[in-house]
Design a protein that fits this description.
Elements: H1 24-32, H2 35-44, H3 48-70, H4 75-94, H5 98-118, H6 126-151, H7 156-181, E1 185-187, E2 191-195, H8 196-214, H9 224-252, H10 267-271, H11 274-292
Antiparallel strand pairs: 1-2
Helix pairs in contact: 3-4, 3-6, 4-5, 4-6, 5-6, 6-7, 6-11, 7-8, 7-9, 7-11, 8-9, 9-11
Length: 293
């Protein structure tokens, strides 16, 4: 019996050569490293307005990515949604009183009204577009705006860094704990790779990061018990925020919110947990910490 010719349909295909390249974790790290010195300078040494401008640009990109995912069919709605996101953040930072902030919300509502009527097609998707025109600026602009608002507080750079530690240390801890010990799926419908063990590792890493800053940049400012409790609440909210963005992406049929950084996807993908860790930290700094004095 003769063997099949090399180009015969029945011939076994040769194995593809193994592709060599950076792993996703190494690629993420290498692409983020150049940004770290600039971000630290903005947080601790640059004028306050420079960090605010940086934050508004960050929020504009995240808002654009969200609108591009959720309202791909209407350019007018995407542009207005992005502008409304940045505008709501600016109003949150500079509104002199509650009435001015309410006025900004009214502008958001009236603008959404006119955009919806100016570009109604396709009509069967109008309710979805309206939902994101009103909800998107709050989802991105208010939660990420908490970072810029934190920076305006005393020890602002340290509080911002704490928010980042709670988000990024938790993400890293969850990744490695999940790889080492992950057995029980956390929420397979939204994120098949996430595990309960990874989530617990993420909480532990968040607590460790909070205690590190409590002993250094926030020594004498943040009580250690508060650091632990804040880390547990904020990192849990951050993990939920990660799942929430996964839900949004799955409903839109996309894998990443964008491709702005190699290995990271979109900027919104890197901010989904930070939105809620910063919101929790801001709530603590403005409402709870004064009572502890």
């Amino acid at each position: 019996m003769t063997s099949a010719a090399p180009d015969s349909p029945t011939a076994p295909s040769a194995p593809e050569p193994e592709k060599k390249g950076l792993g996703s974790t190494a690629l993420r790290l290498l692409s983020a490293l150049p940004l770290i010195p600039s971000v630290l300078w903005l947080m601790f040494w640059a004028p306050k307005w420079a960090f605010e401008v940086f934050g508004l640009v960050w929020i504009a990109i995240c808002g654009h990515e969200l609108m591009s995912m959720t309202i791909p069919e209407s350019r007018l709605a995407r542009v207005w949604g992005t502008l409304a996101t940045v505008g709501l953040t600016a109003a949150m930072l500079h509104a002199p009183n509650a009435s001015a902030l309410v006025g900004a919300l009214l502008v958001l509502g009236v603008g959404g009204l006119f955009v919806a009527l100016a570009a109604p097609e396709p009509i069967e998707d109008a309710s979805r577009r309206l939902g994101w025109l009103f909800g998107g600026p709050i989802y991105v602009g208010v939660t990420l705006g908490a970072i810029a608002a934190l920076h305006q507080q005393a020890h602002g750079g340290a509080w911002v860094l704490l928010s980042m530690f709670l988000a990024f240390w938790s993400d890293t801890g969850a990744y490695f704990a999940g790889r080492a010990f992950g057995r029980t799926k956390l929420y397979p419908k939204l994120s098949p790779k996430k595990t309960v063990e990874g989530a617990i590792g993420g909480l532990a890493a968040g607590v460790l990061g909070a205690l590190l800053l409590q002993q250094t940049l926030l020594a004498g400012v943040l009580p250690w018990l508060d650091a632990v409790l804040l880390a547990l609440v904020a990192t849990a909210l951050g993990q939920a925020g990660d799942l929430l963005e996964s839900l949004i992406k799955r409903s839109c049929g996309v894998k990443d919110s964008g491709n702005i950084m190699p290995g990271h996807g979109g900027l919104l993908d890197r901010s989904d947990a930070l939105m809620f860790t910063s919101a929790a930290t801001f709530a603590y700094v403005t409402w709870i910490l004064p009572l502890r004095g």
